[in-house]
Amino acid sequence: MTQAIVTTTETVNNPISSESSISKPEEQLLWASSDLELMPNNGNRYEIINGELYVTRAPHNKHQKTCGRFFTVLDVWSRATKLGEAEIGAGLIFGDNDDVIPDVIWMSKEKYAALIDDTGHFRGAPELVIEVLSSGTDNEKRDRQVKLKLYSNHGVLEYWIADWRTKQIEIYRRENGILKLAMTLFNSDTLTSPLLPEFSCLISQLFE
Where is this region: Disordered (predicted)? Predict the structure, then answer.
């Protein structure tokens, strides 16, 4: 595996971390999903994107509450309509060099059955991915650029980036084969989606 590790401002001190991405020579191998089994069980989040390892510590409590509220409204709607499943902190494996843990995902019943493996991870793209921003330039770059590209390349239909500090949500939808910013919703707006028939939620409820 390469020694290139992309860390965020929330990365804790540990022997495999540095304050910035370390360049990886051509001859070195990339990090793979199997390498995650060797990581310590210390509460950090380990993700691999394009063969680079991202190490992030436990986020702000408000971040976690916001994740929980997104999951709750989607789970309630899904159970009522029986159209899909919402998951929080689920593992998505797109390939050996792309293994991530988005904050919240939603997928149809058909996708759920097709993608889940024996370990409880999902091998492929859900219809909807939600990431709640953590503070720091590196964290925002990861969610707004690195993960946007990853989810776009692998077929995610909608990507919501939520900021609990500003109380707004950026909605990306697939257009001409890529995810593009469709709108930005603010605290007084209502959240809907063409993926979720008759789903409706006040933005203010998500950021209480």
Answer: 1-20
Find the angle CA(183)-CA(107)-CA(37) to the nearest 5 degrees. 110
Query: Is 121 buried (19+), middle (13-18) or exposed (0-12) by CB count in 10 A?
Result: middle
3-class DSSP state of 31: coil
Residue with tokens 């199997």: 34
Beta bridge partners of 174: 179
CA–CA gap between residue 157 and residue 195 (Å, rounded): 8
Residue type, 104: V
Neighbours of 185 (CB within 10 A): 19
CA dist 12 and 20 (Å) reads: 13
Distance between CA atoms of residues 98 and 160, nearest Å: 20
Amino acid at the residue 61: N
Domain 60-206 has CATH 3.30.70.100: no
Report if pTM > 0.85.
Answer: no
